[in-house]
Amino acid sequence: MYHKINLFKFKKLIPVAILFLVANQASAEELNAKYPVFLQVNETIIGKVVNQNGSAVEGATVTVLETGVTATTDASGNFTISANIGQTISVSYDGNEQLVKIAGSTVSVKLQSKDTTIAEVMIVGYGSQKKADLTGAISQLKAEQFKEGMNISVDNLMQGKIAGVRVVQSSGEPGAGVNVSIRGIGSVRSGSTPLFVVDGVPLSNDAVSAASPNVGLGNTQAKNPLNFLNTSDIESITVLKDASAAAIYGARGSNGVVLVTTKRGKKGEPMFTYDTYLGYSSVIKKLDLFSAGEYRNALLDKSYDHGGNTDWQDEIYRVAASQNHSVSFSKSTDTGSYFASMSHMDQEGIVQNSSFKRTTVRVNAEESFFDNKRLKVKVNLTASDIKETGIPNGANAGSDGQVIIHALMANPTRSVYDATGNYTNFNMNAHYNPLYLLSVYNDKTNTFRVLGNTEATLRLLSGLNYKLNLGIDKTTSERNTTMFPNITDRTPKGSYIQANLDSYNVLLEHYLTYDFKLDKNNFSILGGFSYQKFKSAGTYFGVRNFAAQGDAIPPEINPGYSGEAFIPGAGYAQENELQSYFGRVNYNFDQKYLLTASIRADGSTRFGDNNKYGYFPSVAVGWTISNENFLRDSQIVNELKLRGSWGQTGNQELPNKITKASYSLSQSAGYYLYDNLNLINGVGVLRTAFPDLKWETVEQSNIGVDFSLWNNKLYGSLEYYNKATKNAILYIPTPALSPTTHWFRNSDGQIVNKGFELSLGSDIIKTENFTWNLDINAATVKNLVKDLSVTDITSGEVSGPGLSGVTANIYKNGYEAGSFYMLNYIGIDADGKYIYEDVDGDGLIGQKDKKIFEGPIPNLTFGINSYMKYKKIDFGFSFIGQTGGYLINNTALNLNINNLASDRNVLKNFADSGASPTNQPQLSSLYLEKSDFIRLNNVRLGYTFDINQLKWMKSLNLYISAQNLWTITNYTGYDPLIDTSKPSGGNQSLGIDYTTYPSAKTVLFGATVKF
C-alpha cells in the first residue's frame, strides 16, 4: 500500500516567509515600545520553589510580571531567570499562584497549596466541572499516576486504580484485547465494554484490524481497538460510572464512559521530553506437567517412550525483548498551546514468532483569536501504524489446532528435531510438533489509523459559548495469513487468505453552554446536537495448493502467481448512524446545594421502525455539608459532600439490520416450474422482521459521600449503587408458524448489579525531604438474573476431545449471570474412576445430573497504590486482587489423565490423584477453580540526577520497573485474571480459560529526560 503526499512548491512559501518576517518585526517594535531598553538589561536571579511542607516543586512556572520573561523549575525546584531587583515574579503550579517581589539575587518561594482538593477541575461529558460541584460518581486519573510498567493501551492504565473498574486480559499476546467492565456484567449479548471518548470523539467498539481467517487453526481473538494510542501522550482518564454522569451519552452509556484526554502545551518555557525503556519479559509461570523421567515412570504403554527429553514450554516460550522511544515537545503562549510527539514501540511476544510494533505521531494545537480570546480553535490529530505478527492460537479451533495446547500436550520424551535435523513428525492426527506448526504458519497484519478532530469555541456573550466539534476516525487494515504446505492434517496442501478492512467514523457536534450567576444562584446550561456515522467495509480472498515454503514466491507477495483460488474475491459493507439531542442543567446555591439534570434523545438506524428514538434522563443532587456554618471552621473536616443520583442509559451494541427481514435464493427452497425439470431456486427467509426492537435500558441509582479530613491527610469517597439492565435483547425462539426458528427481541428479563465502592487516599508524610502517598480502592458486586422470559440461556463453549457442543455458562433466573452449569465431581473410586453426583437418583449420570455452580464474577476487587519520594529517589508500587469468582480451567480439561493413554502429556496433580488413564474427559466441577489472587502488579524505583550545571538539560530520571512480579493464588492455570472469549449463539461467555496466550512478567529499564 502506497501513501502519496503532495508538497507545496518552494516558491509558494516566499509570501509566507515575508509575512512571517514582517510579523516578527512588528512584534519586536511592540516589545521595545512596551518595555524600555533600561528595563531589559537584567541580572540573573537564582531561586527555588518548595511547597508548604518544604518539598521541591518541579514544573512550576515563574514569570516576571514587568517583562513577561518565564522560566520553569527543575526536579530540585530550582530556577534561573533574568530580572531586576524590585520587579515582581509570579509563581504558579497546579492551580496555585503566588506573587513575590525580588529583593536580592536569590529568591526563595514557598507555595501555599489549597486546603482540599475541591478546586480540582474534572473532565465530564461535553465540558468540565470543579470537583466541588460534582454530583455523579466520577473518578479521574492523571498522567503522574501512569508511571509504572509497560502498557500498550489506555485500558491497561486503569487496572487496580479505580474502584469498580475491572480490567481483564483476554490474552497475553502483545496488543491483544482487554475486557473492561464497570460495576459488573449487565448484558447477555451486547458485551460490557464501556464507551471510550478520546478528546471529545466517541469511538466505536467494533474491531479496527482485519479479522483472523481460519486456515484450520481457528480464528484468533480481535486485537485491542485502543492499542493505537501512545500512552505517554495521555494527560488524564476520567471514568463516568453512574447514570447521572453517563446519561449525557445516552444509548452508549450503559456500561459506563471513559473519557481520555491527551496532553497539551503547558505554561512556561518550551519543554522537550524524551522517554525510553528497554524491557525483558518471560512467561508468568509454567504449568506443572510431567517431565520426561516422570512421564516414563507413569506410562503403562512403553511404546509412548520416544527416548527424548524435552521441556516443550521452554521450547515455545522465550525471554522477549521490548523497547520504546517517545519524544515530545510542548509549548504554551498567551494565546494558545502546542504539543507534538512521536513514538515507536517494538515488543516481542513471549511465544516464538509473535510481535507488536507501533509508530505514532500526535499533534495537539490550540490558538485564540479576536478580542480577549473570543474565538478558540483546537486541533487534535494522531496517526498510528501498527505491524503485528500472530501465532496459530485460535480459541475456536476445538480441542486441537492451537500451538499452545500442542506444546502443553506434547510428549516430553519426544525430541524437537529428528536424526536428519528436521522437525520431528509426531505422525498423529490433531496433534503436532508445536515448533513445526510455528514454522509453517505466517500471520502478518498492518493497520494504519488516523483519529482527529477540530473544535471551535466562540464566545457570543459573557458566559454564553457556542462550540463546534468535527471529528474523524479512519482505519485501513490488511492481514495476510499463510499456512504453507505441511505434513499435518490441517490444510496439508497450504492455504493463504488475505483479509482487508476499512472503517470510517465521522462526527459532527455543535452545542451551546451558558454560565451565569444570580446572587448566590449559579447556573450552567448545556444544549446541543450530535450526529455520528459509522461505516465499515471488508474484502477477502484465498488461494491454496501452492509451492512449499522457500520453493517459490510466497503467496502474500504475489497471490495471483501462486496456487489456485478457493475463496473468490468477496466482500461486505455496512453502516449505521446515530442522531442525538442532549441537554444538561447544573445548579449550585451558595456552594452548598447542588442539582444536575440531563436528558439525551438518541435515534439509531440499528433499531426498529417503531422505536427509532430512545430517551435517557438523569437527575442528581448534592449537599456540601462542609460549607455549612457549623462545619466551615472545622479543623478536622475540610470537605464533606453527600450525593444522590438516578438515571437511565442505553446499550445499542448489536449487529446492524437485525430488525429487518432477510431473504436468500437457494435450491433447498426451490421448485420445478417448467416441464424440462430444471430446478428453479426458491426464496428462503433467513431473518424475521421485528420493527418493535429497542435499546437495552440500564437504570441506575447511586448514593455517595466525598470527604477530606485533617488538612487532606485522609480523603476519599464511599458509594452504593443499584444497577439494573432492562429490556434485554435476546436471540430467542419465534412463535409457532414463524418463517424462522429464532429472532432478536426485547425480553422482560433483568440483570441486576448491586454493590459498594470505597476509595481512600492519604498524604501520609509530607516533609521537605520525604513524601509518601497511599491510596486504596475496593468494590463489591452482587449480580443476579431475574424475570427472564425463557427457561435459561447457555453459552461458553468448552473445547476438548468428545466435548463438541458442550457449554459451561448459564443465564437463569435467580442466579448470577454466566453461572457455571456442569456435573458435580465427588471423587475417585477404588478403581480410579471419577464419581459424579447422581442428582436425579436414577443410577445413571447424564444431562439431568448437571448442577448450577457459583459464577465467574468476583464479589470483591481491590487495588493498593503507593508513591514515595526521598530527596532524589522515587519509589512506587501497586497491588491488585480479587476474591469470590471462579474459572473453568479448560486448559486442564485438555491435560487430563486420559492423555497418558494417548501419547500426550498430563498435569501432575491428575496423575498423583490416583485417577485411571481410562477416564474419559468430562466437563465437571473437577475443573472449576477459584480465581482469588493478590498480585504485585507494578513496582518502580527511580533516581533524579542533579544537573543544574547543564543549561541545556532540565532533568534526568533513571528507573527500573517490574510488572506481574509475583502472584499469590491457588489457581493452577497460567493466570487467574483471564477470560477467553468462547461465546455460543452470540451470547457472551464468562470465566473460561482455554490455552490462552499466557501473561508475562516484565522487568524494564527506563529514562525520562527533559530539555
Structural class by secondary-structure content:
mainly beta
Outline: globular
- Total domains: 2
CATH architecture descriptor text of the largest domain? Beta Barrel
The CATH class designation of the largest domain is: Mainly Beta
**N-end to C-end Cα span:** 37 Å
Show unreliable segments. Answer: 1-40
Helix content: under 10%
> Could you describe the largest sheet, including whether it forms a barrel?
22 strands, antiparallel, barrel
Q: What do we call the CATH homologous superfamily of the largest domain?
A: TonB-dependent receptor, beta-barrel domain
Determine the mean pLDDT. 87
Radius of gyration: 31 Å
Strand content: over 45%
Q: What's the gist of this structure?
A:
It is built from ten helices and 52 strands.
Keywords summarizing the entry:
1011 residues, mainly beta, Immunoglobulin-like, Maltoporin, Chain A, 2 domains, five-stranded mixed β-sheet, 10 helices, 7% helix, disordered N terminus
3D structure, described in words:
This protein is mainly beta. The chain folds into 2 domains: 67 residues, Sandwich (Immunoglobulin-like), CATH 2.60.40.4130; 856 residues, Beta Barrel (Maltoporin, Chain A), CATH 2.40.170.20. Helix content is 7%, strand content 48%. The strands form 11 sheets. It has a 22-stranded antiparallel barrel. A 5-stranded mixed β-sheet has the order 10-15-16-13-14. A 4-stranded antiparallel β-sheet has the order 3-2-5-6, with no helix packed on it. A hairpin with a 7-residue loop joins strand 40 and strand 41. The protein is globular. It starts with 13 loop residues before the first helix and ends with a strand. The N terminus is likely disordered.
